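Hi there, hope your week has been kind to you so far. Thanks so much in advance, here it is:
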Amino acid sequence: ETTKIDNLVANEMVTKDISTAASLSSQADNPSTIINKKQQDLSDNLYGIDRNKGLLNCGHNEILFNKLLLKFADMHSADVQLMQQALEDNEFSELSHLAHTIKGVALTIGASTLATMSAELESCAEDASAKEEKSDADKVILIPRVENTSAELLQIIHAIGSQMSATSESYDLENKDITLKEDKKQLHSLFAKAIA
């Protein structure tokens, strides 16, 4: 009786091991599995980004999410200087607009801390903008918020850039198994929602 049970258990384990090995082998031979792994590599463990939230916002489309990250880094790398300039020029409504845009896109990519910082900056800049007279007191309130938001933004952009350069040898965003035209529409739609 014990021998029969031992044989059944052993047979079951061998069968599972063979099917698991076959599954892994077929996945290894499948180019889309390799692409998906490389796609995931780009967004795994990025500073300040909750990958699961970002993927959820992208309909669990790894390719789209990674393109969105790259587009974010590219489009918002100058925002630190723009925020500093708006602050120096007392252009608080411009500062509010920049913070609003960063907040929306940050929420889309899963950068919750950046979104929170940007929301706080946006609110303070709106308050300062609504005043008839601009004062140094407004700047005293805004300076640390601009600095904190800028630092967080730069760290995220640096993390995206570092991760991309680490995977760039085997990673080409333009040659994936998704229709590029459809992908661009989705990307445009996500950005439009984010900055609305």
